[in-house]
């Protein structure tokens, strides 16, 4: 089963409300993600087996809890023009993600469209220094020049977004909610220049982890996903590499709230997207440089192996000598990325 999209949402509501919940009482686009769809391309000619039930969360801070949550995204508003180019206009935007307002930027190609859309999930930048739209300027520009509406979310606690004081202690799972709400807000806006039947997801570094979470929490929401130099699909490995060596006091807060992996292994299993790769329905492309000394390529190889073992459509492209941010091979990687989205979104 696919998530309802755009104008088709209301028409499908009666048939889908029991399983998904398309439109809430407040008129927002919503998605209840309690069970994975059987297939994003299932047809009446080949009925799929019934979806397995979602796991019962042992902790409200978990991916299963997000799977059972009814997500809301609405009120996408275009603000001031930030940039005008020969190919697109960039706007400051805000949208609602459940009870929070999230800021970001949106590049809209010139012309009538409708254009396919991409939601971008940026990597880690200290929220104290982050500015709206920061993180992937090369990708924002190139993708818009190639005919994609690009919605780059700032996430909660960043730039002009509302604050969520518990987000860091709760392993930043709120960023996953912000990405889910971004696509729901795009669809609820019913913009004539956006084709809400063709929406992809792209993330880099920490944003790659957000992509993994989104694919397991909301299968069928996007059509395809791409990640660059992603973090580990096991949060404890990210903490051990990035936070614990720096003496980050947040580590102590996290372990006080949720226990260590040794004390509470079930919690850590339930916040790891690799635990739930069997739910994923979208094709996934991963780029990783062999010289990445920030996010070890071994992390990605382990994640890819889990996807492959579950029979999922995953492709890994490695780039000899490339580091975490990609340099000389970045144009090559974007050629591959655009060809991938061309196959799955066009």
UniProtKB/TrEMBL annotation:
<dbReference type="Pfam" id="PF00326">
    <property type="entry name" value="Peptidase_S9"/>
</dbReference>
<feature type="signal peptide">
    <location>
        <begin position="1"/>
        <end position="25"/>
    </location>
</feature>
<dbReference type="GO" id="GO:0016787">
    <property type="term" value="F:hydrolase activity"/>
</dbReference>
<protein>
    <submittedName>
        <fullName>Alpha/beta fold hydrolase</fullName>
    </submittedName>
</protein>
<feature type="domain" description="Peptidase S9 prolyl oligopeptidase catalytic">
    <location>
        <begin position="139"/>
        <end position="345"/>
    </location>
</feature>
<keyword id="KW-0732">Signal</keyword>
<dbReference type="InterPro" id="IPR001375">
    <property type="entry name" value="Peptidase_S9_cat"/>
</dbReference>
<comment type="similarity">
    <text>Belongs to the AB hydrolase superfamily.</text>
</comment>
<dbReference type="InterPro" id="IPR029058">
    <property type="entry name" value="AB_hydrolase_fold"/>
</dbReference>
<feature type="compositionally biased region" description="Low complexity">
    <location>
        <begin position="30"/>
        <end position="47"/>
    </location>
</feature>
<keyword id="KW-0378">Hydrolase</keyword>
<feature type="compositionally biased region" description="Pro residues">
    <location>
        <begin position="48"/>
        <end position="58"/>
    </location>
</feature>
<dbReference type="InterPro" id="IPR050261">
    <property type="entry name" value="FrsA_esterase"/>
</dbReference>
<feature type="region of interest" description="Disordered">
    <location>
        <begin position="29"/>
        <end position="63"/>
    </location>
</feature>
């Amino acid at each position: 089963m696919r998530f309802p999209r755009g104008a088709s949402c209301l028409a499908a509501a009666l048939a889908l409300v029991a399983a998904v919940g398309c439109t809430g009482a407040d008129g927002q686009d919503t998605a209840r993600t309690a069970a994975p769809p059987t297939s994003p391309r299932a047809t009446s000619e080949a009925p799929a087996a019934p979806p397995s039930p979602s796991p019962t969360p042992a902790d409200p801070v978990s991916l299963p809890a997000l799977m059972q949550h009814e997500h809301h995204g609405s009120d996408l508003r275009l603000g001031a023009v930030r940039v005008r180019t020969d190919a697109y206009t960039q706007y400051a935007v805000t949208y609602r993600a459940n009870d929070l307002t999230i800021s970001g930027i949106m590049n809209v190609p010139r012309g009538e469209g409708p254009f396919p859309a991409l939601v971008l999930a940026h990597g880690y930048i200290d929220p104290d220094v982050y500015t709206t739209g920061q993180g992937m300027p090369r990708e924002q520009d190139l993708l818009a020049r190639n005919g994609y509406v690009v919605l780059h979310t700032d996430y909660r606690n960043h730039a002009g977004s509302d604050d969520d004081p518990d987000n860091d202690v709760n392993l930043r799972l709120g960023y996953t909610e912000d990405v889910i709400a971004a696509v729901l807000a795009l669809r609820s806006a019913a913009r004539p220049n956006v084709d809400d039947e063709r929406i992809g997801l792209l993330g880099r570094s920490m944003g790659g982890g957000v992509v993994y979470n989104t694919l397991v929490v909301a299968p069928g929401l996007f059509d395809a996903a791409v990640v660059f130099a992603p973090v580990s699909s096991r949060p404890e490995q990210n903490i051990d590499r990035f936070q614990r060596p720096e003496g980050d006091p947040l580590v102590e807060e996290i372990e006080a709230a949720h226990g260590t992996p040794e004390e509470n292994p079930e919690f850590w299993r339930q916040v790891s997207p690799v635990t739930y790769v069997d739910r994923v329905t979208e094709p996934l492309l991963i780029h990783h440089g062999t010289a990445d000394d920030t996010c070890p390529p071994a992390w990605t190889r382990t994640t890819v192996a889990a996807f492959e073992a579950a029979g999922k459509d995953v492709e890994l492209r490695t780039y000899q000598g490339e580091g975490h941010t990609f340099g000389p091979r970045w144009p090559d990687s974007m050629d591959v990325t655009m060809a991938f989205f061309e196959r799955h979104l066009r």
